[in-house]
Design a protein that fits this description.
2 copies of one chain form a homodimer. Chain A is of the alpha+beta class. Chain A has a single domain, classed as Winged helix-like DNA-binding domain superfamily/Winged helix DNA-binding domain (Arc Repressor Mutant, subunit A). Chain A is 25% helix and 26% strand. A 3-stranded antiparallel sheet of chain A has the order 1-3-2. Chain A has a 3-stranded mixed sheet with strand order 5-4-6. In chain A, β2 and β3 form a beta hairpin. In chain A, α2 crosses α3. Chains A and B meet through β6 of A and β6 of B. β6 of chain A pairs antiparallel with β6 of chain B, so a sheet runs across the interface. The structure holds a DNA duplex.
DNA sequence: TATTTTACTGCAACAAAGTTGCGTTAAGCT
DNA sequence: AGCTTAACGCAACTTTGTTGCAGTAAAATA
């Protein structure tokens, strides 16, 4: 197991999630941190932070991995199912603070749901 | 543009979608057809069939691409939003014939939704 | 049916995202 | 300061998917 240490790399990476409510592509994080740390390190820190419930990840419609800061998640309780939204114009991805109603389907016991919405955000549709 | 020809390869690939309602991983199709055709061919046929509205694709929670046969889609009208379900036990992915209610979110104009559900199917939960 | 057109296929090489092994570094403890 | 061990960097690798080009085979035309 082991306890996550607050190294320079971890602090730096976490700081990138602060000033925004948007999700960030893992690939973009790696590009942005190119001079400061190795891509392996980025992936490993993201893994650890996710396991501790500090951030959460999801896969976009192109198969790329996104990360965003959790609001009210912990390592035990990580199942707040909220949809993610991507604007077709500015490409930004945001977590929507909306409760998703999981449909009840006969013959299927649904335990989790990943909802990825696509459309136009307010700034791009005006 | 060009019109899709019904070549041997196309017929063979399409036949794999017949006997099942389940979705198929692109990677699995390639493995299954290894002796009969090149992986480039598989990807290209899948692309064409999707453009024509004969099959549709989506990305699973692991980032891999799935394909399934459409029921009631055409090249013009491809927007029947139905959820996809993966059983955590048998790993099968199926299209659920359920209408998804897209939530109305302020400041966001939602045009499309990808819903990926995870849980237990009937055969695996009994 | 022979010819011509053009969509389709195979191959090899490539691209990009993400992983693994291992030797080294540095955080946190006493 | 010294010790333990988590964390890091590097290089090499794996996997999925793409691209360019030369050759093949459908389908259209005559």
């Amino acid at each position: 197991m082991g306890i996550t240490r607050k190294t320079k790399a971890v602090k730096k990476l976490l700081s990138l999630f602060e000033p925004t409510v948007s999700a960030i592509l893992a690939v973009d994080l790696i590009a942005q941190l190119k001079e400061e740390m190795n891509k392996t390190t980025v992936y490993r820190i993201l893994d650890r932070l996710e396991n501790e419930g500090i951030i959460h990840s999801f896969v976009g419609s192109d198969g790329l991995k996104w990360y965003a800061k959790c609001t009210g998640c912990s390592s035990n309780n990580h199942n707040d199912i909220h949809p993610h939204f991507q604007c077709t114009n500015c490409k930004k991805v945001t977590c929507l603070p909306v409760e998703i109603k999981i449909p009840i389907v006969e013959n299927y016991t649904i335990e989790n749901a990943a909802v990825f919405l696509v459309g136009k955000c307010n700034e791009c549709s005006s």
